[in-house]
Amino acid sequence: MRHVFGLLAVVAMFTALTGCSSQESQGDDVATETSVGDFSTESGAVSRIVVVRHAERAGSDADPDLTTDGTDRANRLAVELAPDPGVAVYATPYKRTQQTAAPTAKEWKLDVTTYEPARDPAPLVAKVRTDHPTGVVLIVGHSETASSIVASLCGCDVAPISETDFGNLYWVDLAADGRVVDYQHRTSY
User: Which domain of life is it from (predicted)?
Assistant: First the structure.
């Protein structure tokens, strides 16, 4: 029993020292789920960067459209993010990412900024942090890029996204000095 308490103490110290809290919640657990659409500066955060993989695609060709389920998912994301002070929406040039981003961009009355997907997300992350020091930014990526974008933002380990998983939603809250105030991940939106 002493080992359990010791382990809990070590975990608590590590979490406190990293300056970043993380919450993983299952999308089906609505009662305890934190909404991404509740951005507040009370924690000291001045910006929130939301990262998702594109929604469900129709087929596996090079540039497919979203399925009906994918369009529904993109619309749910827009509804959830609607209350937030959106300042930018980024998506790769592919139809599936543009179509996932479009409802949120429309809700926020913004254009979608196109970026090229890259194995190294550092240039995109630096641009987003520099160009949007306050407000909420949405970045729509791919299974092979979304988790690396989040890892670059929070400086933490983020598991890769499965090729068949379209529901991961991440957000990273940043203080004015660039410090991570909060990092959260949900498996469904």
Answer: Bacteria
Question: In this predicted model, what pLDDT tens digit does every residue of 97-128 receive, in sequence order?
Answer: 999 999 999 999 999 999 999 989 999 999 99
Is the dihedral angle over the CA atoms 181, 150, 188, 53 positive or is it negative?
positive
Measured between alpha carbons, how far is residue 97 from residues 4, 30, 74, 75, 124 in Å? 44, 26, 10, 13, 16
Burial class (CB in 10 A: 0-12, 13-18, 19+), 175: middle
| 172 neighbors 153 (Cβ within 8 angstroms) | yes
Query: Token pair of 8, please?
Result: 């809990």
pLDDT (tens digit per residue) in 10-57: 333 333 333 344 444 333 333 234 566 667 777 778 999 999 999 999
pTM of the complete model? 0.81
The dihedral of CA 68, 73, 77, 50: what is its sign? negative
Measured CA distances, 87 to 31, 110, 135, 145, 184 (Å): 29, 8, 6, 22, 20
Task: Determine the 3-state secondary structure of 129 from DSSP.
Answer: helix
